[in-house]
Records
---
Amino acid sequence: MRYFLFLLVAAITLVGCQKQSAAPPPASANAKTYKIHGTVQSVDKANKTILLKHDPIPGYMDDAMTMEYPVRADQLWDVITPGSTIDGDLVVDNQNTQPYWIENVIVSTPADPSQVPVNPNFAQIGQPVPDFTLTNQDGKPVSLHDFKGKALAITFIYARCPLPDYCTRMSTNFSNLAMQLENSPDKDRYRLLTISFDPENDTPAKLKAYGIGYMGNDKNYKFDTWQLAVGKDAEVRKVADFFGMEYHTDENDKAKINHTLVTAVIDPTGKVTRIFTGNSWTTPQLLAEMRSAVNS
């Protein structure tokens, strides 16, 4: 097996020789740095992010996770491939417009990058979604079969999530789409479901208040297009596992849940048509996928 090792420090020396896009903001004085090691699952060169299955991060994250990270390594994007092993520095900077990223990257690329690690729980396109029963924001049961005949998008959040690029963005995207669909003549063909993976804290009443906050504080919103739901941990985890979504309570801060981001589109027959990982998808992209699911 051949290995190609590249240091970001060396890449930086080449920056002055080439035209570069605007540099991201530097780390603030309060930024913290942690060592990170993992295997790349997918690469988004356009947005300069990777989906990384990484080991526990000493001093920051006690559990192994699979998460999307921005990477500051302009000279390495032709080298980083699915299956690459990377070592680097995870910078966490809550005062930065980019609150976290990986830098000082060393990449080990396998000779056959097509050998991509597969999450055995990850839902495959075309698979039927197993039925589930949860409780929605109005305290009523909600199951997959309730959405038969409609295109359904599912995402996962917990209401206390402090990261603006994580649960907050998912809920903003869903609420924006819900508002858009309210004025659409074919709105009854589409449904949105947000599932909380924090049943200990996200009661139906709390989820209703959470959703109302995203719908312009409209206390009369009926939650017909967009619903929020929660259930017993075993039931929620069954749904999350099917879509390859991971979440674990942070051992150092019990109020924090380390988690990945997964948003799925399901066609009117209950089969998966698209899975978005990470947070780079947009509301128009989601709507386009749902329309495609309806017309497929």
---
Amino acid sequence: MRRFLLAVFLCATVFRAGASDYTDIWFNPSEQSTAGGGWGVNVVQSDAFLFLTFFVYGPDNKPTWYVAGLTRDANGNFNGPLYATTGTYFGAPWNPADGAGSAQAGTASFQPTGAYTANLSYALTNGPTVVKVIQRQTLTSIPLAGSYNGTQAGSYSNCMNSYAYFDRFGLGVAQPTGNTLTFTFNFNAGLSCTLSGTFQQLGQLYRIPAASYACSDGLSTTAAVEEIKATTFGIEGRFSAPNVGGACREDATFSAVFLPPL
């Protein structure tokens, strides 16, 4: 294989599968008004726990406030209690006693159907059961272009000699047009690989469903680049290439820190 490998050490290593982080604003795009109004759910994840705040409306069409604390189950879904909360009028000093009336109002469930979509359901004890198909909501474009330095961990499978690998690289990310991203990986062993294509943005995440994948050793194939995210200090993502020679498949994750201009 073409990689700079720690092959002897890593061939028996099982990499921990990274789980998606669902922190974002989620909504149903078909249930938004042209004026920008609508409903949605704020999701904040802490390991296997999700905290949800709902901005929805009651029978009188006025804003109603619910929160939920959900825990991940063995199937990767999140379930837990739904609460109706009360509190002090925001124009007055906070009085802890005003929150004493908060109580469980039902149950809620967040069931991911991928990194970007989910099924949301919540059932009120004295009200309806609501089931919605939701997705991440994009607020603004997030700049990704720049120079980075990082590492990549992956594996080749379905090969005659399947194994895991680990690489270090310098990374250049370019956005030559409004909807195109190009990742150029320059590995320590002198190999250069490029992933390039038309991207989609969903909330905080980008994806390139059909990227061209070419390397200086002659590889020319396609890959799906998923869950590309600008982090506090850099960038991260993953990609899958179903055909990198014969029936051989490559799957990898990468993470890199931003290199500021000198």
